[in-house]
Amino acid sequence: MSRVIIVVHRGALRESISCLLPLIVNTVTSSLLVSHGIRKDTTLHLFFNEDGIDLMFIGSQVRQLRPDEQSTKGILRKAKLKLERGIKGKFSKIHTGILMSRTTLSKLMSTSVKGHSSLLKLKNEFKRGLDIRLIDFDKYTSFIFIVPLMPLDEQLLKDVNGDILNIKLSRERLNAPQLIVLFHNEVDRHVFKQSRH
Predict the structure, then answer these.
(1) Domains of the chain, first to last
(2) Where are any strands of DSSP class E within 130-189?
(3) Of 36, 156, 167, 184, which residue is most buried, by most CB within 10 angstroms?
(4) What does the pLDDT read at residue 137?
(5) Is 170 or 8 the better-scoring residue by pLDDT?
């Protein structure tokens, strides 16, 4: 089982750290942390559209990621410094299991599908999405889930096309951490059901 979560934000990394730090921290912790540690099967991409920057957290490799704001803030500050000094090469290492690269949203989507078999790509679509509870998760072993950091970023998702399923997770517009919790809940229920057979 593998899960790739792509969170898109129209702004820049530097301003986001200043203005949206609690939301970004909650996004990271909702994506990667569980009560017994880190979700090893999950990779999180934080895509900042204004910079064309992808901040990638690899669950199987990341170390010392804690739910408190200060530890994640330290990682984000390192990323900001790396961006200011210039990214050299394809990827720049920020911390163990955390990499930064320059890319576009379409490139990020195309590279994220590589190496995943039996893949289901999902996109949060508040108005016209299929209720996530109606999806037959048993057919798939890999999932890509793309969401806006906050409802104002939904416009960026319109550029994501192709064989992607529009889903609806809530009757209300939610921020990324809330959507990610609902996504994990559905996939976890599927995994739990499989493990009992």
Answers:
(1) 2-195 (3.40.1280.10)
(2) 130-131, 142-148, 165-168
(3) 167
(4) 87
(5) 8
